[in-house]
Amino acid sequence: MDRRNFMAGCLGLPLLAQADGAHAQAGLTKIIFPFAAGAGGDTLCRLIAQEIAPVLQRTMVVENRTGADGLIGIKAVKGGSTDGSMVLVTTGPTMYLLPMVETTPSFDTAKDFVPVSLLARFEFAVVIGPAIDAADFKGFVAWLKAHPDKTSFGVPSNGTIPHFMGSRLEKDLGIPLSRVPYRGSRPILNDLIGGHVSFGIVTLADALPQHRAKGVKIIAVSSAERSPFAPEVPTLKESGIDLVADAWYGMWLPAGSPPEFAGKLGAAASAVLAKPEVKEKLTAIGLIPVGSDAEGLSKELAANTAFWQPIVKATGYKIEN
After folding, report:
1. CA dist 70 to 87, 92, 97, Å?
2. Is 183 exposed, middle or buried, given 0-12, 13-18 or 19+ CB atoms closer than 10 A?
3. What Rg do the C-alpha atoms of the chain give, in angstroms?
4. What is the C-alpha to C-alpha distance for residues 225 and 231, in angstroms, rounded to an integer?
5. Are 252 and 87 in contact (CB under 8 A)?
6. Global pTM?
7. Average pLDDT of 126-131?
8. Residue 216's closest CA among 228, 230, 227?
């Protein structure tokens, strides 16, 4: 399935995903997604809303509450109604990185939210432009050492996994690197093609179209194993860097929500993600459907927190709030 055509089709999905008329509506549920419409996570939300509305017998609405690297949407759900009318779907990194980098954390994931389900994984890629004379990651490292004045790299935003991946690479390679924050992946890829930065760290899904068109070259992926979307590209671990840094989307409810509803919602979401037609639609945009119970989400969050906390702390990076 063509990713561009599929995304265009999903943007045409109504914001309101209603249950079949034969079902009585029990109420309205807003799925709060703290990022812009049109990206992979937004499409994930709309597919889930469309599919679980009949199961829960509720009207499902996807609402994009953007801003402050996800904080606006997260705060909208924190302390919200516990009657099932508000659900948060966001990336794992927003839930564990933001409390690490804010001078005064705006939320406590464990205290302010009820875990529901892990939804889907996505991967990051190390990408170089056509001006770089390197066949693979090891060749690129040699190129960086030979060009110490050209070590700038682009990340989609400060305080993100790509930001801290860059910090970890700087430490492991022993090469001073210069981070350049952008607003998203597209301008990074454009600047790679133009030779304005030496490499970028972006989501694999964003880099794949230009990689396949030979505009840029993906030289490593950050997942534990080679990606099903680019099996020809080695992982960072294969390339000599002991770093696994994928990310994921999860679902939460406000603290105090009934565990019975959380369980029903999680089971419904996991069942949706197991459908072959949903898997096909999500893999078409670079997402790997997962699905889990609340415990699975909590374990994933705890493991990521433990892994990234010392790396983030070592950078000294903070957001004043």
Report:
1. 14, 11, 11
2. exposed
3. 20
4. 9
5. yes
6. 0.84
7. 96
8. 230
Do 178 and 202 contact (CB within 8 A), yes or no?
no
pLDDT band for 33, please (50, 70, 90 cuts).
very high
Instruction: Give me the residue label for tokens 């990408």.
Output: 127
Q: How many residues does the chain have?
A: 321
The two structure tokens encoding residue 257 = 């929500």
Find out whether 311 and 96 touch, Cβ atoms under 8 Å.
Answer: no
pLDDT one-digit tens code per residue, 267-303: 999 999 999 999 999 998 889 999 999 999 999 999 9
Q: How far is CA 26 from each of CA 53, 57, 275, rounded to the nearest angstrom?
A: 10, 6, 24
Tokens of 242: 């002991």
The residues that bridge with 88 in the sheet, in sequence order, are 32, 252
Residue 88 pLDDT class (50, 70, 90 cuts): very high
